[in-house]
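Weekend entry, working from home. Most of the wet-lab plans are on hold until the incubator is repaired, so I used the time to fold the two sequences that have been sitting in the queue since the last round of cloning. Logging both here for the record. First:
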Amino acid sequence: MEQTRRTIHKSKHIALVAHDHCKSSLLQWVSTHQSLLQAHTLYATGTTGNLIQRETGLAVNAMLSGPMGGDQQVGALIAEGKIDLLIFFWDPLNAVPHDPDVKALLRLATVWNIPVATNRSTADFLICSPLFAEQVEIDIPDYQRYLKERLQ
């Protein structure tokens, strides 16, 4: 598929997701970087979002809980170009009943070429990158061109 460009603005739309065994680690990470995160629009799956709001006071657009469809809601926002960055602390050692949704979320983040951190070290690298505070152009699939060519 052909590619086009999308602008990720200085003020980013960031999705925060964490499996049950990783929620405390994500909460610590958010608390550590709270001053940087408050300048951005935050989204999260239900339980994670509510925990972040309660613990930090940051405004979070909470979706449904992950197993109830929250992962898919975040994935839809990624596909619509409404999420710029995904911080997803997932637990690779414990199977979850909604594992296909988890894989679909990570696949969509890859398809739409957004930065993804799946652990604290990578999240630290992302948030400390000079690009985190800058406007950035990324390549994404040119889906509109694909549809136009397909319908001709």
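Second, folded right after the first finished:
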Amino acid sequence: MKITIAGTGYVGLVTGVCLADVGHTITCFDIDERKIQELNGGKSPIYEPGLEDLITKNLEAKRLHFTSEPEQAYADADCIFIAVGTPENEDGSANLSYVEQAAIMISEYIHKDTVIVVKSTVPVGTNERIARIIKERVDPSINIEVASNPEFLREGSAIHDTFNGDRIVIGTESQETAQLLRSIYEPLNIPIVTTDIRSAEMIKYASNAFLATKISFINEIANLCEKTGANIEEVAEGMGYDKRIGNQFLRAGIGYGGSCFPKDTKALNYLAKQYDFDFRILESVINVNKYQKDKLFLKAKELFQDFTGKKVTVLGLAFKPNTDDIREAPSIDIIESLLKENAQITVFDPIAMGNVEELFHDKINYANSALEAIQEADMVFIVTEWREIKELTLAQYKESMAQPVIFDGRNCYPLHEAKELGIQYYSIGRKPVE
């Protein structure tokens, strides 16, 4: 069976490379010719640990192919996965234009019975819409089946998640299509959940919305801990032993970011409004996260009042470790707030620095290491808990900074160490060390 992946973004590229690695013959298509050239040379356009090695391995094994020629990609494919982006519109809805463009292009080149699998994150009802777009354009004698197959990959561990996922969701009205997709995923030996198409679409949004809710809930508990004198880490540990709750996503911090949770929570809330449903919990989750991103800056503002001329360091720019993704990253909000206050800003991130430089150019300074970044700083914001950042000792902060004042959004250090060293240390959901 010949499989084509439409789109070489995060989801499409990881999916294609991993399916090739378990033995399938995969063609990845993208209209960006420069990106295709890089991929054929073994270079990944995104940062994901281990991805370039897998690309090179499967290119050499002739199981993986990259092309910008639609006829080469689609004409002879048995199964086509649509894995293009669905970015957020201004009103919070999902922008489906790329999915629709992919469907129109596919319909121009398929000449035989084909299964179309929508892997992009799309609102309920989109698969039916895509089926109509394609069936209206192809010869009526060609049988087209459309299925929903949402992805559940975490940036920074997407390859591991592909091979060790909790479940694979297949949404289809056809038993034959369900069996075909089962055969594709069989080598992964992961539980498969088969549903109708609309339920599969909803599973993706519901899963991300629930995880976002859990993050916002623990952050609200952390904010209450600060007022009551409780310690959020001890509270979360005690909660996590309850099997009904679990210990995942109970780490308090400065909010969620990235390409999934912010976009998907807003898209689900927009969908609810389309059906005249007031999704009050989800609206609260979105608002809580918006406030939480400002948490560190507000703590610093209360302490310093005036940032003019202050040397401020921001450690960690990606929304989480092991990715270069700065979409909806708390670091961006913090930098923008500090610039408005006329602070002198130095930043460091082991991977995401280039993406931030495209945003801020020479408005801020870029250090080559975490240690270099904190030299003579008046205050430091710890935003992303990269290993390279956590390896800095509090003693190094004290020795390097003009005055050791740390605002830690990831609770990287024990409170007693900060107290013993005489460092002013403000974290999330824990007592300040002053």
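Plan for Monday: verify the second prediction. The two ends are 65 Å apart (CA to CA).
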